[in-house]
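Q: Is it fine to ask for two folds in a single conversation?
A: Yes, each is treated on its own. Send the first.
Q: Here.
A: Result:
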Amino acid sequence: MESLQNRFLISMPQLLSEEFSKSVVLMCHHDDGGAIGIIINKATSHYIGEIFSEMDIITTIDTYAKQPVLNGGPLSQELGLVIHNGRESRWKSSLKVDNGLCLTSSKEILADMAAGSGPERALVTFGYASWAPGQLESEIRENSWLTAPVDHEILFSTPFQDRWHRSAAILGIDINQISGQFGHA
């Protein structure tokens, strides 16, 4: 299978697991060794401003302070990650997703965001999702996921509750018209 890095995974209606039901996942890494992604449409009850406060980061602008922190996935929920449109070399611990998109776990990016010198666009998440070698490919064959190209407007500008529908619409699909029932003919 071709790499799914820099693609959206869109859960099918029949995927009912609590973590992934009606989810959109930004695939940050995918190769023969497995896959890593961040759920981009499930907000937590926390806000980025709370993180700034807990980490004693002085805020000079409130651009991000009232933005919800996302539940990025079921693994390492204590790990904060930032998806952003900046250069990966600017902050330590960055993974290049594509030419204009990075995933960073650096505390320095949060300080820069609070000071107004961070990336133009960013999402903060707690946790991530991962798949063992061959696991994601198997789930796709079982019709648990659709894949679509990443759309930065959906990623950074679309309200969280609309991202599942909008991501499927990239493929010309009204996800509400797909049955959650499946079987064999």
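Q: Second one now.
A: Result:
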Amino acid sequence: MLHNIYYTSCDGVNTIHACLWRPEGKPKGVFQIIHGMSEYAARYSPFAEFLAEQGYLVCAEDHLGHGETAKDEEALGYFDADHDYRTVLKDIHYLRQRVQAKEPDIPYFMMGHSMGSFLCRAYIARYPEGISGAVIMGTGYQGKGLINTAIAMTNFNAAFCGWTNRSNFIKSLAFGSYNKKWGGSGFEWLSVNEDNVKAYNADPLCGFPFTDNGYSVLFHSIKAACARKAFKATPKDMPIYIVSGQEDPVGGYGKQVRTVYKKYVKTGHASVSMKLYEGARHEILNDFTKDEARADILAFIDGVTASYKAE
């Protein structure tokens, strides 16, 4: 069952909405979800309920500018005045501290999807202590030159139009090529499942355009996640499971996902593994891969949990 909790954002202004899904009895582990761009925590309810049935306590917050955290429609896609991705990391960390304080003696997992995957990668490099494992879903990789150009163009656009501007140019820069392979409404790249795409299009809390402020946070989070120091700062013995659809444009149709995997291997991570789902696009938890992806993630965290108990 979903429980709603609220806490003050680290920006000192907004109130963060978060969700908890509790299992029956004492949980055997905690699984924290970091959601993606232009969506929200409760979208993960089916997956969270599945994990709760398997004995895991699941939690997730709505980032600034998302879900119930956003005060109104105008606030969607706008983070805060500082447009600093580290504020989002601090809000994620606060939820973890709050939950982990109540459940201190069980394994704690982090999972990030899409934008959340970059935040997750930056998070496990910045706040690694006490994390038992991480699932990186729907991720990608961008070199410093390209991401610095995107940041500069966003800053230039904001200087003339303001940080609340919703620029079609910046949107095209970030996602212009994603749907060319499929056509349609513009979000077919998310899923082979047409019903999932229709539900996403019909949801007022999904698919909203980002402000320049939002894109600044997104691009800086990607830059932080892809920096060599983030790979090096992540503990070498942390189990990391990277999953993505083979046809996901965010991951360069598998190429960038393999790059992320190789970066972790190159920096000495002995417990990193990867799976690409053939024919699947971006949202593997909402597609024909749903059951397989759930089972694979459960097998990963169950394996770590079993080792944790044996220690």
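Q: Anything structural to flag on that second result?
A: Two points. Residues 181 and 247 are 10 Å apart (CA to CA). The chain has a mean pLDDT of 95.
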